[in-house]
Amino acid sequence: MAAKKKSKSTSKSKSPQRATKPLSQLLRLPSGPVDLSSLDTAATHGFPGKGKEDGPALTQALAPEISDLQERLYANGRSDPENAKRVLVVLQGMDTSGKGGVIRHAMGMVDPQGIQLTSFKVPTDEERKHHYLWRIRRALPDPGMIGIFDRSQYEDVLVVRVEQLVPVSEWNKRYDEINTFEKKAADEGTTIIKCFLHVSFDEQKARLAARLASPDKYWKYNPGDVDARAKWPAYQQAYADALERCNTDYAPWFVIPADRKWYRNWAVAQLLREHLVGMDLSWPEATFDVAAEKARVARS
Ligand code: ATP
């Protein structure tokens, strides 16, 4: 992935370009040490348009193909659940990075019947009685479905680590556990797409301020977000470690520059499209005699 180099205004004026490589290559986090500060939060890698003005239209233009592919996935889940594939999109990012926006604008293009969305909050009393992966396992997508995790198992090595909710010895072993967990899900036929929505410290401030500037946005404002913001370096380090230690071929991380909402939404939709295309989804065969059924319908 290209390193940070441009300010927001400079790369905004870029001329239209066609992606030379699939976005899943351009945004794929390389293996090895992760330095989040070197990755540009305002980049527009692979965006085929001019900028903000055509972001929503280019995102929407992906809808017919995504919709067709999702229907194939769903159809296979209905007709052959034992062998049907599944997709899991994991969304992680600092507060205001736009998990909700991605769900609305990118995932919102998919038939809601084919989506299983789970938002992971502070564990409930019931959840606390179990291993931290218990609630995650229960939320894995069914055959033929696209699961979306709004926050995920990674909270157990992020907020839990930064807020010191368990000892170091406890969270430190979780990276391997998460890898094992994700390997099993992948082996069972789940394509896992992990998206880190990478927003800058300054952009987060602007978004928090915007929430306070207008009464119709107060509901989005959580005073606790400012407390977490005060621990920004610790969160960035926790994210860097989670990305580095859980970046596998079967469950790779993609770093989505998230300072520009229109790019972020397009990028996640495009990643989903590329993964669905790569799954080579065909329509299920009829389980009945088509000619005979045509004749029966004609006679009826
Ligand atoms: P938005 O980002 O749209 O504001 P949100 O995802 O922050 O919404 P909230 O209910 O405000 O939703 O926050 C969920 C909170 O739950 C976050 O602070 C998150 O860190 C916390 N959380 C999630 N999983 C865990 C966990 N395993 N242990 C402790 N806290 C967790």
Automatic annotation (TrEMBL):
The keyword Transferase applies. Signal peptide: none annotated. One of its GO terms (molecular function) is phosphotransferase activity, phosphate group as acceptor. Keywords: Transferase. Pfam families: PPK2 (PF03976). Residues 1-11 have a biased composition (Basic residues). Residues 65-276 form the Polyphosphate kinase-2-related domain. It comes from the Bacteria. Residues 1-57 are annotated as: Disordered. GO terms for biological process: polyphosphate metabolic process. The keyword Ribonucleoprotein does not apply. PANTHER family: POLYPHOSPHATE:AMP PHOSPHOTRANSFERASE, POLYPHOSPHATE:AMP PHOSPHOTRANSFERASE-RELATED. This is Polyphosphate:nucleotide phosphotransferase, PPK2 family. It comes from Micropruina glycogenica. The lineage of its organism: Bacteria, Bacillati, Actinomycetota, Actinomycetes, Propionibacteriales.
